[in-house]
Hints:
42% of the residues are buried. The radius of gyration is 16 Å and the shape is globular. It is an alpha/beta fold. It has a 6-stranded mixed beta sheet with strand order 2-1-3-4-5-6, with helices on both faces. The protein has one domain (2-209): Rossmann fold. It has helices at 2-11, 79-93, 110-121, 137-143, 163-170, 193-215; strands spanning 20-28, 59-64, 98-109, 127-131, 150-155, 177-182. The protein is built from 6 helices and 6 strands.
Amino acid sequence: MRRRLRHDLKSGGRRKSNPGVFKVLWSRSGAGRDTAPASRRRLFPRSSGVPSPPPLWRGHVQQCCRGVGRSEGDFADGIGEQEDAISALDFLASVSQVNPSKIGLAGYSFGAMVALPVALHKEQVKVLALVSPFLSASDWEQLKSYVKPKLFLCGDKDYIVSPQEVQRLASGLPQPSQYEIIPGADHFWWGYEGKIAEKVSTFFRNAFTTMKESSAGL
């Protein structure tokens, strides 16, 4: 299965999808809505099947993995891609307008496999969302000690990632944790773009709000 996914990453596959994408999202320190064009607010590239969040987001860093889509370089077995994600987080840490308490990381398919170890080891990541998570048994085991807010989404027609396994494994993780199996959706989310974008966006918004209230003692 891993070889099959790697082939999809390198060749682009036959579907209009991009499994090699991860995303870093943040909320700026100031108030107000993001006025960037919609093309710059996409949660994932249009070809991934997972589009942008509503304009409640203040900004984001988006990256297709090496050698995927219009990204340069060659596929680096996940290690180089993790380094790229860390570089994106380090960049955000250097931006004065970024609120460091409101940085989340989202990954789709192979991008989820890239995002997870980064989230586990980088304190900057406060919230994690994994869509169609292509994770190993070791990855799921490490999640048992991850106590930050996390979301898992999978389509019930997914033939690459088992929705039954996602439900079984995600249900046993420490809180705060959410999972949802979306009826009718496959691995590529074709036709479910708006629904999945809204679910991820709502999760991030609610998680950041809860953390803010908790820190204020509400």
